[in-house]
Amino acid sequence: MRVIKTGNLDAMKCAMLITGSGPVVILTSYDSLEHQDLLERLANKGIPKFMAYEIPLALAEERYGGHFNKVLNGFTESNDLRVLDHNGHRAFNLFRFDELAAPLMHEGLPESYHH
Questions:
Q1: Is the separation of the CB atoms in 30 and 38 below 8 Å?
Q2: Count of domains observed in the chain
Q3: H/E element holding 26?
Q4: 47 in a domain, yes or no?
Q5: Residue 23: which domain range?
Q6: Does the global pTM surpass 0.70?
Q7: How far apart are alpha carbons 80 and 60 in whole angstroms?
């Protein structure tokens, strides 16, 4: 398996997802946060509906330090989605709104919502 090293950051996206259970920060090698495979993977993990704010990779690396590099270096060709931060309180307070890209809203399919 090919490991994606930190020198290949241009192939990565980082985003804060605001979900029904709170914020989570992800790293993904998908070229778009709207890529159908990514949306399916998120839905399969119980995140069918979210607001996403892309985070500049350099900023995420600065804020998360060594943890960012550890998660990034854990990527392989078959692993295209990693959670960088599942602590919603920390994730939400680590970035200012003016540091984030415009929000992307994904509604998902109603039948995929968990009641």
A1: yes
A2: 1
A3: strand 22-28
A4: yes
A5: 6-108
A6: yes
A7: 17
